[in-house]
Design a protein that fits this description.
Shape: globular
Number of domains: 2
Number of strands: 4
Bound molecules: glutathione
Radius of gyration: 18 Å
CATH architecture of the largest domain: Up-down Bundle
Distance between the termini: 33 Å
Strand content: 5-15%
CATH topology of the largest domain: Glutathione S-transferase Yfyf (Class Pi), Chain A, domain 2
CATH class of the largest domain: Mainly Alpha
Helix content: 55-70%
Structural class: alpha+beta
Oligomer: single chain
Number of helices: 10
């Protein structure tokens, strides 16, 4: 739990992640953008539960601050916004604009994120080599070593928990298309950012959660090449990249580290 007053963190934040997770990338990007020091502690599922459970969390990302642990990506962004300097805020001060940012962030968190995960995992989960690369990037040695032992069980639990079936994946694909269309529609007036004239949590959340569907070359956790991906995923990625929303996510990634 967080205390009421925020303390200036003297130590780097700790960020517990499943490194491939697009929600973890949302938190990582915010920390990078705000140039706040952090140490990432990457884990492979289900070993993340040992780390997140210790601080009262379950899913990743979890960020540990001197004020307590934050167990949701949106809570992490709101916290970071409070410690960010005035010229680097992720949420507008104007109440109407802030509401628009929060509504878009909720839409992306609640619909786009789960749909992309379901569609992506449906096509990738039977390729254990691909999954090994996706899940083991930078994780402790013993977790990596146990991948071949635990993966079949973890995969079947994940398939049930996330309802990953051919039918749900096809529905998820349509849902991604529909949210991309909504974002493309917003961009038709030539705006640079989704809300107002500056980069906000809405832009960051869209790009981070859309990343698995457009595979930006600048993404810190995925390989740029599409060659190793299943062909169904590649054809979807190529289509998403060609949409205005996809191009927008790619542009934001191009500028991610500036
Ligand atoms: N609402 C959460 C969602 C996070 C989430 O779904 N994280 C997934 C990775 S993509 C996770 O850690 N799943 C493993 C679990 O729930 O045990 C947030 O925004 O932080």
């Amino acid at each position: 739990m967080l205390s009421n007053s925020l303390t200036a963190n003297k130590k780097p934040f700790r960020l517990i992640t499943i490194p491939i997770s697009h929600y973890c990338e949302k938190a990582r990007w915010a920390l990078t953008k705000l140039k706040l020091p952090y140490i990432e502690e990457p884990h492979m599922p289900p070993f993340h539960l040992l780390a997140t459970g210790r601080v009262g969390g379950k899913s990743t990302p979890v960020m540990i601050t001197e004020d307590g642990a934050l167990t949701d990506s949106t809570d992490i962004l709101c916290y970071l916004d409070k410690v960010a300097p005035d010229n680097a805020k992720l949420y507008p001060t104007d109440p109407d604009s802030r509401q628009q940012v929060e509504q878009l962030e909720d839409l992306f968190d609640e619909q786009l994120g789960p749909a992309i995960r379901r569609w992506g995992y449906f096509h990738a989960m039977n390729d254990s080599k691909l999954m090994q690369h996706a899940w083991c990037n930078g994780v402790p040695f013993f977790e990596r070593a146990l991948f071949p032992v635990v993966f079949p069980t973890v995969r079947s639990i994940a398939q049930q928990k996330l309802n990953i079936t051919q039918e749900s994946s096809a529905q998820a694909y349509e849902q991604i298309k529909s949210i991309f269309e909504q974002v493309s529609e917003l961009l038709t007036d030539g705006r640079t950012y989704l809300v107002g004239n500056s980069f906000s949590a809405a832009d960051l959340t869209f790009a981070a959660l859309a990343a698995p569907a457009v595979r930006p070359p600048e993404h810190p956790m995925t390989r740029a090449s599409l060659e190793e991906l299943p062909s169904k995923l590649v054809s979807g990625i190529k289509k998403f990249r060609e949409t205005p929303a996809g191009g927008f996510a790619l542009r934001l990634y191009h500028d991610r580290n500036n």
